[in-house]
Amino acid sequence: MALPWMESRNVWGDAPPAGIQPASEAPVRLAVLFSGNGFHSKEWWAKGEGKHMELGKVLAPLSDFREKMLFIRGLYNEEALKGNIHSSQTGNMLSGAPLASGGEIRSGTSLDQLLAQRYGHSTKVPSLVLGCEKSNPSVHKNYSMLYSSHISWTSPTTPTPLEVYPALAFDRLFKDEVSKGDKSVLDAVLADAKDLRRHISGVDQRKLDEYLDSVRDVEQRIENAGKKGELQGWRPTLEKPNIPRPADGIPQDIGEHMRLMCDILVLGFQTDTTRFCTLKLNNDHSSLRFPNLGVDYMIHHLLSHSDTADWLKVNQFFLEQLGYIARKLDAIQEGPRTALDNTMLMYCSSMLTGSHDATQLPVVILGGGGGRIKGGRVLDYKEKPERQMCRLYLSIMDKMNVRLPKFGDATQRLDEV
User: Fold this and answer.
1) Deepest in the core among 107, 195, 219, 250, taking most CB within 10 A?
2) Are 232 and 253 in contact (CB under 8 A)?
3) For position 84, what pLDDT does the model report?
4) Where are the domains of the chain?
5) Is the entire prediction scored with pTM above 0.85?
């Protein structure tokens, strides 16, 4: 079981000089959160700078992080405009690559997987690819809906497997083998933890206790998930299952499902079990419903074609997940910075609004990228000629010391980032 960063322990492979025991510097991480179908057309905006930045109502859940926020307007993927449907606008979200149609599946290796291929050997899990809605294998207007179900691609022809089961995602981080009936991961390491505690500072002892408590909390919530009986997403023909519910299934409360995945992402970063994660909160062309919000009469995709108060409520619910992750990361101290300061936490969608407007994509980045990103700013590229989304990805890779001459359809960075 991996440990969080500690001031009194050397980690991440650092070799201290003879006779000196300095703390290691925490690594830079990248997390990409995605939600499909865009946002409320009148409430996705930001203006101003720093703590005085004004936010549209969709972004209200992020108001505490304005000074650590980069709001980016006007970027787009040119290849995504060719089909003008959900699948053709999502499959190249993190690559900018041309998409095959007519029964073929071909996109491009995504940003997260390219970085994982460079640095993934440094951690137990090269990348964590999470989702809250199952992949859709059907076809829509000549494009595979696998495109609308995946933003992470291991290769141009291989979408990275999407883990939608919190228990299995948790096991992948903390267990060498996934099997039913395994005892708690904490129970397996308590003796080692007790021994470690005698050799670390008082600050690190408190950090270790908080960390073990958070792992126990997630374990208990996973065990209790799925017992509320609220079936969400696509409606089956039966009101209740006609077979017993499997013990380790998907949580039936979408709010609990998302929070569990958020907690697993944070634990993955906190323990340095992984440094790259994508969390797909729903599919493009999504069938999720939200009885937890009192919005149970229409699926997400259909709701996105309106600018109702309920659509805004759903938008804010999604952004609350980003705020939740940011808040947890910002509470984890890693030397002079917090885990959020050492992270690039990007939120995006494949279209600005539910009317399929992909001529500009909604993008927000929280965190400092290891001190390499200055927050509290709005960057507007809407009227600029070179506004490829992949320019942003080149800049993100630069922050992680991966410098490529070209990525997707871009050859230049966004210098302002």
Assistant:
1) 107
2) yes
3) 66
4) 29-175+254-344+360-399
5) no
